[in-house]
Design goal:
This protein is mainly alpha-helical and 332 residues long. It has 13 helices and four strands.
């Protein structure tokens, strides 16, 4: 019991240290790296929300398109209808969750490979709709000049979130809330049920669990948060268009999650962070990006099938084995 308490305290201390570093970073890095950091935070929401769907055992190829649904919905509400951005962004997430609920009726009649292909078909249908209709979606060029958030505070004045440093803290706040929500859900009865559906869906159904309802719940919650990520992206770069949410981008999300691991919520965060750093280091070799990602994916599946999140445990185990070997050799 004492050991568990100390481990929990260490994790909390480590989390607080990471948050403290993230709060200091915007003041010690340049605007370019700050922009990269904002994109990283948005991608963390995408990866963590995607993992929540995989808890049911299903893998989707439409998650990035659902991100686009949130981006388009928020942009249309703010630009066309003149709603406050603060209202448009959560409504964009809700619109994404509502669409996910409708898609759940046909999609969750399938499972495994068929669900994967069905989600891809649904996503492409949505993306082609954006591409085809200039009114209201802007066609291939998408929507431009999307308004950025502003906040009027008494005694402070107008806070313009067009400033990257201010927008960074907004994004960081959304990321932290998202991680807490997903963590709490996974540790709750809902999360335990999702794990049960993943590993033994027939057994779970035999004891009265409504599999469709729980899968739909996971799909809608994940879609709400990825829709919110899409809204954050759109209001940051002030543009949304179909190529931003293509299958190629979805494949990168898959690699982030697989390389990071899905055993814990930390896995996708590690995956997207490490691969984003790799992206920046190899920016001049962008034409080789698919090749590099493919090689990383193959090496991970060969040597770390559970992802980078298990690398520390494996290194500790290797260290212990080496110490035992040295002890044996010394004793002999």
């Amino acid at each position: 019991m004492l050991q568990m308490s100390s481990q929990t305290a260490l994790k909390s201390l480590g989390g607080a240290a990471v948050v403290a570093v993230l709060c200091v970073l915007p003041f010690v890095i340049g605007l370019y790296r700050l922009d990269v950091l904002i994109f990283l935070l948005i991608n963390i929401i995408v990866a963590v929300s995607y993992r929540f769907i995989t808890l049911t055992g299903e893998w989707s190829l439409g998650h990035v398109v659902m991100m686009g649904v949130g981006g388009y919905a928020s942009a249309l509400l703010a630009k066309k209808l003149g709603l406050s951005v603060w209202l448009a962004m959560p409504l964009g997430g809700l619109a994404t969750a509502a669409l996910a609920f409708l898609l759940a009726f046909p999609l969750f009649r399938m499972k495994g490979f068929y669900f994967l292909i069905g989600s891809f078909a649904a996503g492409e249908a949505i993306r082609r709709t954006w591409n085809h209709f200039r009114d209201p979606f802007g066609g291939p060029g998408g929507l431009a000049r999307i308004p950025t958030p502003e906040l009027e505070l008494p005694g402070v004045g107008l806070i313009d979130f067009g400033d990257p440093r201010i927008y960074y803290f907004l994004t960081l706040a959304v990321v932290l809330v998202s991680i807490v929500v997903f963590y709490r859900l996974e540790k709750s009865r809902i999360g335990l049920t999702l794990h049960a559906i993943h590993w033994q869906d027939s057994l779970a159904e035999s004891v009265g669990i409504n599999i469709w309802r729980y899968k739909t719940l996971a799909f809608c919650v994940a879609s709400f948060f990825v829709g919110l990520a899409g809204a954050l992206l759109g209001h940051h770069i002030t543009v949304v268009n179909p190529p931003q949410f293509s299958l190629a981008i979805m494949l990168y999300v898959l690699v982030w999650v697989i390389v990071g691991g899905t055993r814990t919520i930390a896995g996708p965060i590690v995956g997207v962070t490490v691969l984003s750093i790799v992206d920046e280091r190899l920016r001049e070799f962008q034409e080789y990006r698919p090749l590099i990602y493919g090689a990383i994916l193959i090496l991970t599946m060969r040597f770390l099938p559970t992802g980078l999140e298990d690398l520390p445990a494996k290194l500790i185990g290797l260290g212990r084995r080496l110490r035992r070997i040295r002890t044996t050799q010394t004793g002999s």
